[in-house]
């Protein structure tokens, strides 16, 4: 019960507009620097280089979501374009992840698509790949609709499917051949649309992974759950699935030893690296996911700033 209260508390706080705005002025606080790799492109490129040297590949996420005016959305689009250009200039091994609400989805659908096309054009020119992050349930269908439209022109774009949603199985079937990141899910969704029990989520998650792999589609298994990782290792071996058809993904700052270990075993291990001054909502969701993550915040309160 206490764990559920903690989770719900942090998820609600993550959507507080006033706190999110204030956090942009605070700089990284409360231990956020342990899971957010700086606020500038230069700082995150440096972190990416360090991780590449350890045999890890990356995906960069310029934090920000639920943008409410076109000027902010255009600024975010420009920043993502510059991030792709910086990745190429530095020669680092990294993809890019974006959120459609950061690009103006809640303002105007066509405006958002045009911003996304600018990013994908830059990614095409720099031979890179862009992942559209999945947001809360209210944005799920429109995100998939936009993905379908974009893929009529661009093949360097994929998205994320969240295993706690009842619809996830059908979505994975519909997206056969698309590069998917499969996750358990990190938003507060109602019992009408999502599993509430961890065991149900885990079971569905494994089902999604196996189905997408067996379809021959590239699959990113994004989890810190060592039991699921071991089950995936066994499954791909039993089904002769080549290592270049899948990759493991983990968040920056979590399970660092396991990340390096997987890379040393010959698996593609991609680190999801968030950066930027709009860090508050992301950090609160990490607090909500596991009670142990609150330790980041406690340590941060007493760390030097």
UniProtKB/TrEMBL annotation:
Source organism superkingdom: Bacteria
Annotated metabolic or biological route of this protein: Amino-acid degradation; L-proline degradation into L-glutamate; L-glutamate from L-proline: step 1/2
Broadest EC class assigned to this enzyme: oxidoreductase
SUPFAM superfamilies registered for this protein in UniProt: FAD-linked oxidoreductase (SSF51730)
Cofactor note: Binds 1 FAD per subunit.
Annotated keywords: FAD, Flavoprotein, Nucleotide-binding, Oxidoreductase, Proline metabolism
Co-factor(s): FAD
A GO term for molecular function: proline dehydrogenase activity
Reactions catalysed, as given in the entry: L-proline + a quinone = (S)-1-pyrroline-5-carboxylate + a quinol + H(+)
GO biological process terms held by the UniProt record: L-proline catabolic process to L-glutamate
Name assigned to this protein: proline dehydrogenase
Binding site for FAD: 134, 162, 184-186, 198, 223-224
Domain annotation Proline dehydrogenase: ranges: 45-290
Phylogenetic lineage: Bacteria, Bacillati, Bacillota, Bacilli, Bacillales
